[in-house]
Every structure is written in structure tokens, then in C-alpha cells.
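Exercise 7. Given the encoded structure of a 93-residue chain, write a plausible sequence.
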């Protein structure tokens, strides 16, 4: 019989529907990019809001941690303890 353990934290931390730290780093990236590219801070905030809304719509219904797993699949981010997404063919000759 399985009993719930109060020590194990199975549910990811969420704030306003976004996971911490996965989604917040992506939104922070939008904010920094918008602040560098655009002169007006209003455009940077608008880009951040648009990116956050897009991220919310893309992630809706997906598993937790989907951002880092997608980055790992495209070899942009390495996850520790997970094999490389690239398949290797073993050929001794």
C-alpha cells in the first residue's frame, strides 16, 4: 500500500501558471533581450508579455520540465544523468 510522503516534493513550484526555474529563466531571457534590442522599456515589457503568453500556450497540457527537455532534444542544454539525444551507431570497423 502506497502512502503519501510529506517529505517528497512531487509537484513543481508554480507561480502564475509558470514553473520555477524553467519558465522563469525563459521569461527573464525575453526581458533581457527586449531591454537590449529596443530603446523603449515599454517594447521590452511588451516582448516579455508576448513571450510569456506564447510560452503558456505552447506548454499547456505538457509535462513538467518540458522546456529543458526540449532544449536537451535539440542539443542546446545538457541534462545531467540523461543520455545524449543523438543516436550513435556502433561499428568497430
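Solution.
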Amino acid at each position: 500500500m502506497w502512502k503519501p510522503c510529506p517529505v517528497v516534493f512531487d509537484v513543481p513550484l508554480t507561480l502564475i501558471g509558470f514553473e520555477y526555474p524553467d519558465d522563469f529563466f525563459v521569461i527573464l531571457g525575453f526581458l533581457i533581450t527586449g531591454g537590449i534590442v529596443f530603446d523603449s522599456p515599454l517594447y521590452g515589457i511588451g516582448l516579455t508579455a508576448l513571450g510569456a503568453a506564447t510560452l503558456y500556450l505552447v506548454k499547456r497540457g505538457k509535462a513538467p520540465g518540458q522546456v529543458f527537455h526540449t532544449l536537451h532534444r535539440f542539443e542546446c542544454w545538457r541534462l545531467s544523468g540523461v543520455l545524449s539525444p543523438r543516436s550513435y551507431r556502433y561499428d568497430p570497423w
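Remark. The first helix runs from residue 22 to 37. Students should compare their own answers with the one above.
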